[in-house]
Structures are given as structure tokens and as C-alpha cells.
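Bumping with the actual sequence this time:
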Amino acid sequence: MVQDDGWAAYLAARRALIGDLAADIDARDLPALPWSSALYSAAPELAREVAVWRAATGCRSDPTPCGPADCEAPAYRRALAARVDAVVDVALLPGDRWRAIVATLDPRLCDDTQWPWLARAIDDASRTGYDVETRLPRLVHDRPLPAEHAARALTYRLADDCPESVPRTQAPPDAGHDAPIRRDVEAAQRLHKQPAPSRGRGR
């Protein structure tokens, strides 16, 4: 395929565009969370790789380093996550810090797709002085959690019980900060929609 002049030019243009987009992303695009600061201090190049991965997969608002496991390149994500885990103390990852406590309240919560956001909400609340070990069980046991979206329901209950955690936990991504990324994605989508060179008949 690459020996075909049309395909070679097409693939070269795509490769150049991807390289340009990746070059515009650095570790400063990571969320302001303890793990990102630790990762940047210990391994700045790895931090940049994580930032590029998060932008490419659209998980920039996910509080975990590499985003959800159900992505388009799970093998690469696992390898990247393993490299991050080797550098960053798991105590800096909200999902690992609070997993043991939350699992005793309702095991479903840690397997919920919204678990990373719940873990971050708990982490935010704890930083304000909220007594997680005493008050979180009350939020679970005073009123049963719904059969579906249990983690999301508990996140909202926590926000009601600890309003101080809401600004960091619930704030939407900054539109101005994301604008360059959106423009880059739109440019890539336009190139993707361009028809690929024809192989021609009889080949």
C-alpha cells in the first residue's frame, strides 16, 4: 500500500497531522490532581505520554491517569497504566485509597463505571476535613442506593452532605482550556473524512 504514490502521500499527511497534534500537548494538560504532580516530578516524559493518551481518547475529565479500561486500545492502555503505577504511589490515586472502605459499604460501587468520580469526590471531601469513615456509611445505610447508577447517586449524596467538595468535584472542564484540543480533533476528523486514494481497478 505504501508503495502506491496516492496512499503514501495520504498516510504521510495523516502521520504528520498526528505528530503535530501530539506536539501541542504536554504534561500541563493533565488535571490538577496529586498523582499528576507526582508523575510529572518523577517522569516528565511519561507524564506527557499520559497527557497525549488522555487527549487522544477523550478522557480528559476522568480523574484516573489513563481513563476507563473499555477503550479502543486496551492493550496499550494496560501497558501505559502499568508504567504509571510503577512511578506513582497508589496512595495518590483516589480509587485505590478509598476502595477498601467503600467496598465494605456496597461492593457494587467499586465496579461501577462512575467509581473514579465517586472516589475523587470522597477524596475532595476528605481534604476539607470531612469524616469519611463515619459519615459516608450513613449516606449508604440511611437510604438504600438505587439498583442502577449507585456510584453516581452516592456522589450526589456526598455533595449534599459536604458542599465544600462540590466546586472541584462537579466543575465542568474549562471551555477555554479545551478549545485548542477541540480544534485539533476537528482538524483530524476533517482529514479522516477525506476520501482515501483509490486503488484503481484491476489491482
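The C-alpha cells above came from a reply further down the thread. Residues 5-89+174-193 form one domain.
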